[in-house]
Design brief:
- This protein has about 325 residues and is an alpha+beta fold.
- It has two domains: about 80 residues, Arc Repressor Mutant, subunit A (Orthogonal Bundle); about 210 residues, 3-Layer(aba) Sandwich (Trna Endonuclease, Chain: A, domain 1), CATH 3.40.1350.
- It is built from eleven helices and ten strands.
- The chain has a five-stranded mixed sheet with strand order 4-6-7-9-10. The protein has a three-stranded antiparallel sheet with strand order 1-3-2, covered by helices on one side. Strands 5-8 form a two-stranded antiparallel ribbon.
- The termini are far apart.
Amino acid sequence: MARRKRAPRRTDPTENADQAELAALRMGEAPISAGIIDEKLSGADDDYPRGNNALERDKALEEAEAEAATEIERRARLLGDAYPFRHVGSRLIHVPADPQLYELLLLVSLAEDYSTGRKRLLPRTFEALSCLIAEAYLGDDAASYRIGWPRPRGSATTLKGAIEELRKATGDQCGEWKWGPKEGNPEDPSPQRAKEQGLDIVAWKKSVDGRAGQLYLLGQCACGKNWHTDAKLQDLNIKILNEWVSEIANVDPVRAIFTPRHALDEKLPFISRHGGIVFDRVRLTLLAKREKAATVLLAENARMQHVMQLCMA
């Protein structure tokens, strides 16, 4: 008698936990099973005899729910009081508190499209939030500049103009953010030729005496599911940036990647080695509790609520 094959795993506990949080956010509370995506389980019993389909599907649902619950407990443990949900039995209860940054990040990560309609606002909103969190991470006397495309209204439209604005904002220091295309590259490339070269935000710790040698954090923002893939982690390439900027900093800058999604603990070392410091939903939420960031976010609460409604529409 042929031995039946084990069904392949079709569920993602991180995605299922997000869906459970979304259900609780919409309804106030919801069973964790509300987050299990049936479409992903529909083929989980394809390799079993037809008589066992219902049994194997129920088993797969139970396993997926248990894994989602484990992921929710991981989030609750890392975030403590900053986690806006409570896991009670098999249910998840939303416990809102302004500013609802965690909820906003959840909704941004679940958006299916970032390139059409009003949802084009979401990546720009996330980049602005990342600037604020980067400053909170660097502490007192930190500043930031959003260089990601499309840039804020009133900012330079070309890469050269943006780098010149950045150099001025950072104090016009010798050896820092000097525009200088390599031979063969145009002096002032159009946005079609060079937008931001994977660099979405720059944050820095201001020099205490106004002299050169500041610490820079070069940030890449990634909202999509592929944020931790090998290819995506190479979007921000210092060597490519040097094609246009001859001198970036006197002190080696630190790379970072910002995402509204969760970075699983077991994947964090790899992502950190290849993408830099990881600022995921947990770290963004915790850093937002720091005084300056918390004050700004509370002042922007109405705008954040508007973005959340846009995501849920």
